[in-house]
Design goal:
Elements: H1 2-18, H2 33-44, E1 46-48, E2 71-74, E3 77-82, E4 88-90, E5 104-106, E6 128-130, E7 137-138, E8 152-154, E9 159-160, E10 175-177, E11 184-185, E12 199-201, E13 206-207, E14 226-228, E15 250-252, E16 274-276, E17 283-284, E18 298-300, E19 305-308, E20 322-324, E21 329-330, E22 346-348, E23 355-356, E24 370-372, E25 377-381, H3 384-389, E26 400-402, H4 424-473, E27 494-498, E28 503-507, H5 516-521, E29 523-530, E30 533-539, E31 545-551, H6 559-571, E32 580-585, E33 591-596, H7 603-608, H8 618-638, E34 651-653, E35 659-661, H9 672-685, H10 692-695, H11 700-716, H12 729-738, H13 748-751, H14 754-771, H15 782-792
Parallel strand pairs: 3-5, 5-6, 6-8, 7-9, 8-10, 10-12, 11-13, 12-14, 14-15, 15-16, 16-18, 17-19, 18-20, 19-21, 20-22, 22-24, 23-25, 25-26
Antiparallel strand pairs: 1-4, 2-3, 27-28, 28-32, 29-30, 30-31, 31-33, 32-33, 34-35
The protein binds 2-acetamido-2-deoxy-beta-D-glucopyranose (NAG) (12 copies).
């Protein structure tokens, strides 16, 4: 936890250091008189043991120009005080309430005493309060709940007492950490209704009462990932409403006085990785619904009154690494399925009432480093691999268990049948009864299988008949996929006449072949309109789907030129480029382009038109960014093509959310006039490099600019189309980075992962800002962008590549 925390801080500070403001800085801006006086008063109440505030000496000219340590300003207003690890004593002045622009107060890891200033509640811009690891006393001021923008309140590890205030009006609060204090009374219900909270850490206090039962009360998405209430005086039962917190990854309720049973609904928390209920007074048995806790890594139920058998469900917890059931009242056999959890490394089942043998499956667990079944009623022989690996303390206290030490030799030569107990006849009976049932089941199965086979056979006949018919109808259509290579037609290219209409269809290699009639008669629905024309989703006879783009009339080049250019585009194959599969020239000059259909639509709609519960995590976004960059590299270096219109609407996503760039090369099909029009439209959408307004000529560098905007779009979740205080997206991001509240740049969904991915976000942001540099010469090349993204991406993120039917270049002729 501590590490994670430091990470966040580093992250914020790194940004401050590395992302230089685009212009100006604070130089020459004089701090306002009110702020100057407030800082003077603030300093007066501190005790500066190490003289680290000596720089706070002049009459105010240095405050905002970097002269005063730990002070950041914007336009003459103090926005941040950051003085952690300075051995500062004394107390925090109430005068701090006069710093109306203050956003961040970071004084953690000092020796500050006195109360948390009530005046913090009067700061309308306050976002972050980091006062942990000090000696603050008194209560948490209720006023702090009036800060509408507060995101982080960390007062952990102080000497605060009294109760936890409501904080209901801080509707942006993401992280509340009041752990390691002496707070008492019960947990306020208001915290259970916060739809913004991600971390709620209240462990090691003196909290009493029961856990509120009002979690997830209203119809909103609850973000809470971490709930730690351990080491308090909490009583009552575990509320089943916890199950409404679908994002929960960690629950710790250990060392309290919780009673009652574990609610069945806990099984609904499919993202839960850690569940610690140890050292309470919980009774009943492990609910069968636990089988749905498929993400669980640590399960600790030690020191309770749980009884009954452990359900076999454990076998679905394939990520389980630590299982601790010590000191309960479990009975029955140890499920052999635990031994099938290949990655498990700690198993403690000691001090229960387990009977039977230790399942042999445990001996084949490679990573098992700790194993304890002592003090149960186990019997039989300890599997020899286990007795070699673990010493006798793991097995003692089981009177009928043998073979784990010299003094516990099994009475007769060790052999498995020694432990086959009296139960055998019973087992046999059981088997017998089952097998009658089995016979009936098997018979039913055979009948079903025969029926199915018959069905398949009939279906096959039908399909064959149909395809024969089709072959007759469209004589000119060849099927390269079928492997009948006709020397007359170059590999992969198929030309067919457009039936009666007299158009022409030219195929490039691809997963399916269709005739012009197939295409023209397909059911189609409009997907969208772009500068080049209208896009349709067409469903062919067999149910296959393709995307068809009908180019605007009078915008394309003449026939001959068009066909030459289209043939070139049809040859391009790359996992991150949308493949052109065919084109159609109609008798009246209409032009259709046929592409693969991408089920997840455009990146623009994926990012900006999704439901509230759809979260796009960072690895997915990174995968998209890398995919787009790879596609662009292929265009720039292999095909020598400048895209000229790279936008998030032109990036399409397949089933696995891999990016495919669309609309590349299309400018070569268009007249110059039409292309100018494209540039103008893209400009209004916010993807155009500034120099384009003068030069009107796309270059590799203008493509890189658009790429940078798309990466910013992935980072911020904001659409470049929507104006932000009159700034475009790059300007907006730069302005916020300059104001040093960089967390606000990122999509809220990503912030919760900052402890883990902070560096990646930061480095990607830097790279993106580099790409959108106003000066084309300063921008990197696509290849460099790719290289850097691949360095930023951690190795475990798998960048999947899309399925390509074939990589063989195709050519098209008449
Ligand atoms: C809360 O504070 C404690 C003590 O400072 C720390 O160990 C823990 O990691 C923090 N938790 C969160 C979620 O910030
Ligand atoms: C104020 O402090 C700075 C940095 O410690 C120092 O360079 C400067 O001379 C001091 N000014 C006065 C008036 O003491
Ligand atoms: C909190 O602690 C202070 C001493 O630091 C004490 O005077 C006060 O009564 C305590 N308040 C509560 C509610 O326990
Ligand atoms: C929240 O704000 C409203 C209106 O600003 C106020 O009436 C209410 O008392 C506040 N609630 C708390 C708990 O501070
Ligand atoms: C915790 O609360 C109980 C009463 O609820 C009180 O008796 C005890 O002194 C408190 N302990 C601390 C350390 O504040
Ligand atoms: C909850 O929200 C969903 C859509 O977000 C809506 O269909 C449903 O009616 C809402 N239910 C209640 C009880 O408000
Ligand atoms: C759990 O314990 C309570 C008393 O503390 C008792 O009323 C209840 O019946 C027990 N439940 C089970 C399932 O044993
Ligand atoms: C697990 O979850 C699925 C789907 O959410 C549900 O149908 C099933 O009943 C659950 N299993 C148990 C044992 O609760
Ligand atoms: C198990 O852990 C791996 C690696 O941490 C993760 O990728 C996977 O999603 C986890 N499985 C489940 C079911 O959570
Ligand atoms: C055992 O641990 C090693 C190292 O932590 C890991 O690479 C390996 O995948 C683990 N084995 C299993 C079966 O989980
Ligand atoms: C353990 O279970 C046996 C029956 O299987 C029972 O006789 C015995 O009392 C139990 N011991 C404890 C400590 O619960
Ligand atoms: C164990 O079973 C084998 C045959 O499976 C038999 O030869 C042997 O005598 C048995 N051992 C004992 C101790 O019963």
């Amino acid at each position: 936890m501590e590490n994670k925390f430091i990470h966040v801080l580093l992250f914020v500070q790194l940004l401050v250091l590395t992302c230089r403001p685009v212009s100006g800085g604070g130089d020459g801006v004089v701090v306002s008189r009110a702020d100057y006086l407030a800082l003077r008063a603030f300093k007066q109440e501190l005790i500066d043991f190490k003289g680290l505030l000596r720089s706070w000496n002049d009459s105010g000219y240095g405050v905002c120009s970097g002269g005063w340590a730990g002070i950041k300003c914007v336009k003459g207003q103090v926005i941040a005080i950051q003085l952690p690890w300075r051995r500062l004593g004394g107390r925090i002045s109430e005068k701090i309430g006069q710093l109306q622009g203050l956003r961040k107060l970071s004084l953690h890891d000092n020796v500050l005493g006195g109360p948390v200033p009530v005046a913090l509640g009067f700061l309308p811009n306050l976002r972050g309060v980091y006062l942990f690891n000090n000696r603050l006393s008194g209560s948490v001021p209720a006023s702090i709940g009036n800060c509408p923008l507060l995101q982080t309140l960390d007062l952990s590890n102080n000497a605060l007492n009294g109760s936890i205030p409501s904080l209901a009006n801080s509707t942006r609060l993401l992280r509340l950490n009041l752990s390691f204090n002496s707070l008492s009374r019960s947990i306020p219900d208001s915290l259970t209704r916060s739809s913004s909270l991600i971390f709620l850490a209240l462990q090691h206090n003196n909290l009493s009462g029961s856990i509120p039962s009002t979690w997830g009360g209203t119809n909103r998405t609850y973000q809470l990932k971490l709930l730690t209430l351990d080491n308090n005086l909490i009583s009552g039962t575990i509320p089943s409403s916890l199950s409404k917190l679908g994002f929960l990854e960690e629950i710790s309720l250990s060392n309290n006085q919780i009673t009652g049973t574990i609610p069945n609904e806990i099984g609904e928390l499919t993202r839960l990785q850690k569940l610690d209920l140890s050292n309470n007074a919980i009774n009943g048995s492990i609910p069968a619904t636990f089988s749905n806790l498929s993400s669980i890594v640590t399960l600790n139920l030690e020191g309770n009154r749980l009884d009954n058998q452990i359900p076999e469900v454990l076998e679905r917890m394939q990520n389980l690494s630590v299982l601790n059931l010590r000191s309960n009242k479990f009975t029955g056999h140890i499920p052999a399925s635990i031994g099938n959890i290949s990655g498990i490394n700690q198993v403690d089942l000691s001090k229960n009432n387990f009977t039977g043998e230790i399942p042999a499956s445990f001996s084949s667990l490679p990573n098992l480093t700790s194993f304890n079944v002592s003090y149960n009623n186990l019997s039989g022989l300890v599997p020899s691999l286990l007795s070699k690996k673990f010493n006798s303390s793991s097995f003692v206290g089981n009177l009928q268990l043998c073979g784990y030490s010299a003094s516990t030799q099994c009475s007769s030569p060790p052999s498995q049948n020694i432990t086959l107990p009296t139960k055998e006849p019973l087992k046999k009976k059981h088997h017998h009864r089952l097998s009658t049932k089995d016979i009936i089941l098997i018979a039913a199965g055979v009948v079903l299988a025969v029926l199915l086979l018959l069905c398949c056979f009939l279906l096959l006949c039908l399909i064959r008949k149909r395809s024969v018919l089709k072959g007759k109808n469209s004589k000119t259509s060849k099927q390269p996929a079928a492997g009948s290579i006709d020397k007359a037609v170059p590999a992969g290219a198929v030309v067919s006449s457009g039936g009666e209409a007299g158009g022409k269809l030219v195929h490039f290699d691809g997963p399916f072949v269709f005739t012009a009639d197939d295409l023209l008669c397909a059911t189609a629905e409009i997907m969208g309109k772009s500068t080049y024309g209208t896009a349709y989703k067409a469903t062919l006879e067999e149910g296959n789907q393709v995307a068809v783009k009908r180019l605007r009339e009078k915008t394309t080049k003449g026939h001959k030129e068009f066909e030459t250019e289209a043939a070139a585009i049809g040859k391009i194959r790359h996992p991150n480029l949308l493949a052109l599969r065919a084109y159609y020239l109609g008798p009246k000059g209409e032009k259709l382009l046929v592409f693969d259909f991408m089920p997840k639509g455009s990146l623009a709609s994926f990012l900006h038109a999704r439901g509230p519960e759809m979260i796009i995590d960072w690895p997915t976004r990174m995968n998209i960014a890398i995919g787009v960059t790879r596609g662009l590299c292929h265009l720039h270096y292999q095909e020598n093509i400048i895209h000229g219109n790279l936008t998030s609407s032109n990036i399409l996503l397949d089933e696995q959310t891999n990016a495919h760039i669309a609309d590349y090369g299309l400018s070569s099909l268009m007249t110059p006039a039409a292309n100018t029009n494209v540039i103008a439209t893209a400009g209004t959408l916010g993807y155009n490099a500034p120099e384009l307004s003068k030069t009107k000529k796309s270059t590799e560098k203008t493509d890189v600019y658009s790429l940078g905007v798309i990466i910013l779009e992935l980072l911020t979740g904001k659409s470049p189309g929507e104006p932000m205080n009159g700034m475009d997206l790059p300007q907006w991001v730069a302005s916020i980075v300059k104001e040093e509240w960089t967390n606000e740049v990122f999509d809220l969904e990503l912030i919760r992962d900052v402890p883990i991915i902070g560096d990646q976000l930061l480095n990607t942001l830097k790279l993106a800002l580099h790409c959108v540099d106003p000066s084309p010469a300063a921008r990197p090349e696509a290849q460099q962008v790719l290289q850097q993204l691949e360095e930023i991406k951690p190795p475990e993120v798998n960048v999947g590549s899309a399925d390509e039917g074939t990589e063989v270049p195709a050519s098209a002729t008449e």
